[in-house]
UniProtKB/TrEMBL annotation:
NCBIfam families: transpos_IS256
Protein name as annotated: Mutator family transposase
Family under the similarity heading: Belongs to the transposase mutator family.
One of the Pfam families matching this protein, by short name: Transposase_mut
Organism: Paralcaligenes ureilyticus
Cited PANTHER family: MUTATOR FAMILY TRANSPOSASE, TRANSPOSASE FOR INSERTION SEQUENCE ELEMENT IS1081
Described function: Required for the transposition of the insertion element.
GO molecular function per UniProt: DNA binding; transposase activity
Annotated keywords: DNA recombination, DNA-binding, Transposable element, Transposition
GO biological process, one term: DNA transposition
Length: 223
């Protein structure tokens, strides 16, 4: 018996609708695995990815650069915050969360850097400061995005999907094969996505700004 992880790709289309693009079950992650994932997506019709929001998965930047070189890679701020809070004791988490907030709510990348220098780095939190420093080039891209979409976090839809799948998988101690697991997960995903409604409330505002930022790469998906 081996433990394996389930990886999901959720896409937000130019019209604001969401779709599950695929799932993959694997024991380890790395550049070769992610290369397979991205080539799989391309084979099945994904022509372009404007922004990829991930939680710092090993080997993904290299694979993404190889298959979709024009994509902006954005670290998920929510995951980075959660990981950072894991370095703090229970009584210190509130103070750490308060120190991090000025970074990701800053009005610009420059202001975020100042907040970082005044916050985790200045407060002598070496593990937290190092984590943000390593991810910094992938922390700041979202400051250029439309404000309704800024925040650098995975869409609420994927967080909801992950939570629901965890509940479902808890009822099964193991699967006899990857195929059996995939069938159950796909059935669950079908039921989950059937309840998805309209795009986010501010999507039209964001859509117009994305059209300016990405021009034809974005508008071609609206044709």
């Amino acid at each position: 018996m081996r433990n394996k992880a389930v990886y999901l790709a959720l896409g937000v289309l130019p019209d604001g609708s969401c779709d599950i693009l695929g799932l993959w079950i694997e024991t380890t992650e790395g550049a070769k695995f992610w290369m397979k994932v991205f080539n799989d997506l391309k084979t099945r019709g994904v022509e372009d990815i404007l922004i990829a929001v991930t939680d710092g998965l090993k080997g993904m930047p290299e694979a993404l650069e190889a298959v979709f070189p024009a994509t902006t890679l954005q670290t998920c701020i929510v995951h980075l915050i959660r990981n950072s809070l894991g370095y703090a004791g229970g009584k210190d988490r509130g103070a750490l969360a308060a120190a991090l907030r000025p970074i990701y709510t800053a009005a610009s990348a420059e202001a975020a850097l100042t907040a970082f220098e005044d916050g985790p780095r200045n407060q002598k939190l070496p593990t937290v400061a190092a984590a943000w420093h390593r991810a910094w080039e992938r922390v700041i891209p979202f400051f250029a995005f439309p404000r309704p979409c800024a925040g650098g976090s995975t869409p609420p839809a994927i967080e909801s999907v992950n939570s629901r799948l965890r509940e479902i998988l808890k009822t099964r101690s193991h699967f006899f094969s990857d195929e059996a697991a995939s069938k159950l997960i796909w059935l669950a995903l079908r039921n989950i996505t059937a309840k998805w409604g309209d795009p986010a409330r501010d999507w039209k505002e964001a859509m117009n700004q994305f059209a300016i930022l990405y021009e034809e790469r974005f508008t071609v998906g609206l044709a």
